[in-house]
Design a protein that fits this description.
Strands 1-2-3-4-5 form a five-stranded parallel sheet, covered by helices on one side. The chain has helices spanning about 20-35, 65-85, 105-110, 130-135, 145-160, 180-195, and strands at about 1-5, 45, 95, 120-125, 165-175. The radius of gyration is 18 Å and the shape is globular. Helix content is about 40%, strand content about 10%. The chain is α/β, with parallel strands linked by helices. The longest helix is centred in the middle third of the chain and has 20 residues, at about 65-85.
């Protein structure tokens, strides 16, 4: 089980909101962690889901340096609160994400693992390619170029995290809109899973 906060728009990564957000995250995760601290390793706590500055120009583009820094600060507050409750939470696997759980390179590059904690897993969301998976204007998938582009997406994730010994969970992915293109969606899902396994 992965337990997280989800679509909490009060988690605003701006200096104007940081003190309020940090205090609330600390209280929230202290309560949740105390409730579940005796649960075994089949429970993973994930600090935030796609934390981002909602409806800003940078919402899905990797944000600003300030926004990425604040997500790092928020992750640390959550991890510290969970670890402080003791029990199995002292070493439990915890998931944190990049800004917006994004694979934008600057979002991945700027992620800081709180306290260099070796029991941190990085949560990534990748609806790749966007125009096929979510936006829907691309109806076909499976050309050599499509596969090469997806290989590149996974190579970036691998080289940024996995090659450096950091575990990654593809927390959200695929979810292709139905465009009366079953075979293309099947090819995409099959190749995506192969890339994940690789």
């Amino acid at each position: 089980v992965i337990l997280n906060t989800h679509h909490d728009e009060w988690i605003v990564p701006t200096n104007a909101k940081k003190d309020e957000v940090k205090a609330r995250l600390e209280k929230l995760w202290t309560q949740i962690a105390n409730r579940f601290k005796d649960y075994g390793d089949y429970l993973i706590l994930e600090t935030m889901n796609e934390p981002r500055h909602h409806k800003s120009p940078e919402e899905w583009t990797g944000c600003t340096a300030e926004g990425r820094d604040l997500i790092n600060q928020y992750n640390k507050v959550c991890v510290d609160a969970i670890r402080a409750t003791g029990g199995n939470n002292a070493t439990r696997k915890l998931m944190i994400c990049t800004y917006a759980a994004s694979t934008v390179q600057k979002a991945m590059d700027d992620l800081v693992i709180p306290n260099n904690d070796e029991n941190i897993i990085i949560s990534i969301h990748s609806y790749f390619p966007y125009f096929f998976c979510l936006e829907g204007s691309q109806k076909t998938w499976g050309s050599d170029k499509d596969k090469k582009d997806m290989d590149h997406e996974f190579d970036r994730i691998y080289n940024t995290f996995v090659a450096r010994g950091k575990a990654v969970v593809m927390g959200e992915w695929c979810n292709v809109e139905n465009g009366d293109n079953y075979e293309d969606r099947l090819r995409h899902a099959d190749y995506y899973i192969k890339c994940c396994k690789k």
